Amino acid sequence: MVKLSRFLLQAALAGVAVAVIVALFFPGLLDQERTGADAIPHVTEPTTGIQGPVSYASGVARAAPAVVNITTSRIVEGPQPLAGEQVPPDFFHAPPHSPADREQASLGSGVIMTSAGHVLTNHHVIEKAEAIAVVLANGDAHPAEIIGIDPDTDLAVLRIAAPGVTAASIGRSRDLRVGDVVLAIGNPFGVGQTVTQGIVSATGRTELGINLFEDFIQTDAAINPGNSGGALINALGELVGINTAIFTRSGGSHGIGFAIPVDLARDVMNEIIEHGRVARGWLGIEVQALDRALAESFGMDHTRGVLIAGILRGGPAALAGLQPGDVVVRLDGQQVDNTRGALNIIARKRPGDEIAIDARRDGELIHLEATVDIRPI
User: Fold this and answer.
1) For residue 341, what are the domain limits?
2) Which residue out of 124, 152, 326, 373 is catalytically annotated?
3) Contact, 192 vs 156, CB < 8 A?
4) Active site residue 332
5) Is 297 a catalytic residue?
6) Is residue 6 part of a domain?
7) According to the model, what pLDDT value does residue 376 have?
């Protein structure tokens, strides 16, 4: 019995010794079981915020009744229309013309903005039109009158006498982010109301040479001829832009479309409804972009700012003391990067407002104050 106890004690001590050696020199062997379990990758639960809707039908149903087709007609000189050319609706009653004249129809889109029947569209959709018809989503057609136009932003406001129309639900374009889902609703190629889907590709696009004042939303939602003036909506069906232009070499959509932000479009519309036109700030200056050679001649190591190439005598800038040859670097506290940016800052001021001008003259920084006047038509 004593020998058995001594044997068990020796075995236990040997086991402890082995355990100590393993712990000191081979610690991974003790963690083998635990390590095997931890080696399985941890799967992160999906975040609900990145899940999109299965369908955008609810948003489209909310927005679609406010999107209209616009047909315009004008008399042009030339031969009779070819087979298949579209003929304007019956309610276009143009005055008699010579047999050589013919009616020419064009198509576009628009958005009902108020329950009073105000319709927002692109100026180029109704430009030179002698008669304009607005066709509602239910197929009813109504003649439209032009309330006002703003060619500088390519916007126009129409009005129809149609009781009970559905106005668009207005969103906020300033909240848009690159990657947000958007849908374009309009009348491409005259086929009828059509919806295309994409994302916001960029915001604040300028220097495109489309309008004088530019601040476009870029999207890859398909926009084609006939979509002009139609709605760009978010996934909730809220209006965020007015579709205006596409970048194309073939006449069709290449996934690069541009829309006027609704924040800008609504401001223009309100100005037109209230005053008949958009009152923009004006200083009476002619500006020129700075290239590297010009910048170096003025002792500048960058090309930010604009050169004053000319000033209207007696205009706001002249009265403030600005001179040809000055380089304006800041307007109203905002850095001026290029000519279009300078004009946009000035245009956003109301006539009668004061605007601060920081410029370089003969290598020195000067500060002036000007009273903005209304921009001539």
Assistant:
1) 281-374
2) 124
3) no
4) no
5) no
6) no
7) 76
